[in-house]
Amino acid sequence: MVRPGPGCAVWEITLRCNLNCMHCGSAAGKARSDELTTDEALQLCDDLKGIGCQGVAMMGGEPLLRKDWPVIAERVRNVGMDLSIITNGYKIAESKFQQILDINPELVTVSIDGGHAAVHDKIRGVPGSFKEVVATLRRFVESGLPTGVITTVHKMNLSELPTIRKLLLGTGVAWQIQMATPYGRLTYDHVLSKEEYYSLALFIAATRKRYSKKEIMIAGAHDMGYFSRVLPPLQVYPWQGCQAGISTLGIESNGNILGCLALPPKFVEGNIRERPLKEIWNDDAFSSYTRKVRRTDLGSKCASCTYSKICKGGCSAVSHSMAGGLHRDPYCLRLIEGELKKSD
Amino acid sequence: MLLNNPSSVGLDILRTRGGARLYQLVLRIAGVPTIRAMPSKELVRLGAKVGLEASEVEQVAENRPDANVFPKWLQLILAIIVIAGSYYLWRRMTYLPGTLYGAIGPRDFL
Lengths: 344, 110
Description:
By secondary structure, chain A is an alpha/beta fold. Chain A has helices at residues 38-50, 69-78, 94-103, 117-124, 129-143, 161-168, 194-210, 277-282, 288-291, 300-303, 308-311, 316-323, 333-343, and strands at 8-12, 55-59, 82-87, 107-111, 147-153, 174-179, 217-220, 248-251, 257-258. In chain A, strands 7-6-5-4-3-2-1-8-9 form a nine-stranded mixed β-sheet. Chain A starts with 7 loop residues before the first strand and ends with a helix. By secondary structure, chain B is mostly helical. Chain B has helices spanning 6-16, 20-30, 41-48, 54-61, 72-92. In chain B, α1 (6-16) crosses α5 and α3 crosses α4 (54-61).
């Protein structure tokens, strides 16, 4: 059976990174020993287009450390897919900046994890990284490129949000907020408690209420939801269940394919060196954990929820890392509201 | 409480489909009294953790759907919306075209 292509392929073009973030889900640092060659990467661009993929989010590691990134980016554009680049914004030389401008991606995103240099630098593991990323952000904004900021929230930076907001107000950037999950380098003791997660949701909702889109565009990522009884929706698009292997696709730098790049290696379901992407994507068994969810797959609390058919148990990565199984995401606003009510 | 009331499902769907204004309009046309719900101490406490004042939390939570009382006829209309809406969602819930989940950009807010 031929399926519609993904809206977006999230592609780690290299695992090499010049920062050492405590929350990095892929524990990036050194490049993988078997990363795709330039020719293989270019072929993959064609193959992505071939399955009907609409856009590529190029990330890492730090994608701009891969020497042939402009060639890959160019091919993505040439075959007619949207391109977004997710960078840590660290040490971007003028020549590299100019290359980005020339390629003119649909979106360029930098990561800011603290409103103060001390916090951001500690999280990112490199002194001076805050100063660099703020300067990079300003350059992107001033150049007129559509720009986004991603903040990954855990215990160390929850209280930084008002300061980051102050930094971003009036810049015209889109601010994506996501919760850090305990994969890669992040340890469980740094993961937000459910109460802290609710505080984070309140922050997003209150910011949306208080400021216009001209002042700041803020939204929760795929792990911020779902179907709250109290708060308005936090995401840009209505939640329709985990989109791993449905409207998104994850690609590791060695050609491993999985439904979503946020998931751990256990979820790798093929490699483009062994099997064509088209075959992997159209395989009936691919990403069956999201494509063929049965009511019996859901955790008991999710199965009894009014929205079980739409939601299907929240984010697969959060559910797997925090509940030990899929379709039972404990970081659910509706669920937490019920628990808070009981404790009242 | 409407926690187990089917009409609350319809309202939530209106909200989740981005129909907050429609939701307000329905309430206004129906002349439904909206009970101004003060946020619980819990919400204020949780908001304080991220530097929110009580008034900000109150603004977010003031239109919470569980604070409204609905007449029977409105419940019936909402139940119809739920059935039609559920059918629509069921038809399209397996694929979300064009979703750029990689990163959110300014154009996603247009």
